[in-house]
């Protein structure tokens, strides 16, 4: 996991440096961001899954292409997954307990960002996720109940692809507010597992704030 995080950060910084050298303007900004996630998975035969509430935190850059158009690469931790609550026996996840299924990723969005007016922008682009942690939590509101899933026993793929669409508002001080929806485009379950025929994709709402230096 440490190697994945370190490699991703190195690639992020290298990409910012290379694109900065080619940009029309030189006022590249790098910042930090963090916020709240509301995540679940969607697909056939999944039943009534509840969303998991977690957080995200990481780095963001804003690299000018034209006066109003920017390239915005990011790298951040994202707590994702879903809650299972009193699912009936016809459902893929058969349980009468409240269980939080935690899927945590390092996400790398590569976004195109356009300023509509001063401060207000919209953004969209592909996002690539690297799974770093997976576990069941049968007591999500208290300590205990955690069952970590080893990568060799996991049914969930290590790599995930999604499309990110959002908007943000940046103040003159450098602080910004953002809202985003990440739409999964690849199935999360591995082939040759009991869930291989299940069409399941990550979906995440993200709301937060950040600061550009």
From TrEMBL:
The keyword Signal applies. This is PorT family protein. It comes from the Bacteria. The lineage of its organism: Bacteria, Pseudomonadati, Bacteroidota, Flavobacteriia, Flavobacteriales. Pfam families: OMP_b-brl_2. Residues 1-23 form the signal peptide. Keywords: Signal. Residues 20-190 form the Outer membrane protein beta-barrel domain. It comes from Olleya sediminilitoris.
